[in-house]
Amino acid sequence: MDTANNDQGTDLGKVIDISRIIQMIPHRYPFLMVDRVVQVVANESAVGIKNVTINEPFFQGHFPSRPVFPGVLIIESMAQTAAVLVVETLGESAEGKLVYFMSVENCRFRKPVGPGDQLMIHVFKERSRGNVWKFRGEAKVDGVLVAEATYAAMILDEK
What we know:
Elements: E1 2-5, E2 11-16, H1 18-24, E3 36-41, E4 45-51, H2 71-90, E5 98-109, E6 118-129, E7 132-141, E8 144-156
């Protein structure tokens, strides 16, 4: 894993590629909604990338004349980015554990997302107690806010 730096050389956290993401969370195609995590600071925040392409299977029906990335999948992208943050925070013992939504609050979709867009998914840990974590997420395209939500999740073993 590489360390990303800004122009001033300040550490922005780890960069996590797709092969490592697949080790960290259990999601797989066609439901893996994060392609790379370009910044993760354990126990604080993460920034994930979802490259939206016309090859996504849901575009056949959502909507054929004007393809729109479903809003619920934007929220899922936020959740998966948060799951990577959880594993980075808790360590290898958390790898592959399931993350179940408990609530989604204050969700707003501000602008449609379509093929060719790159979602930058910013997640911020608000708090955690035991296996319950609460996050605030924002999704942006070209620096413009397209969706936001606050959500809680429970981290559990598969068994």
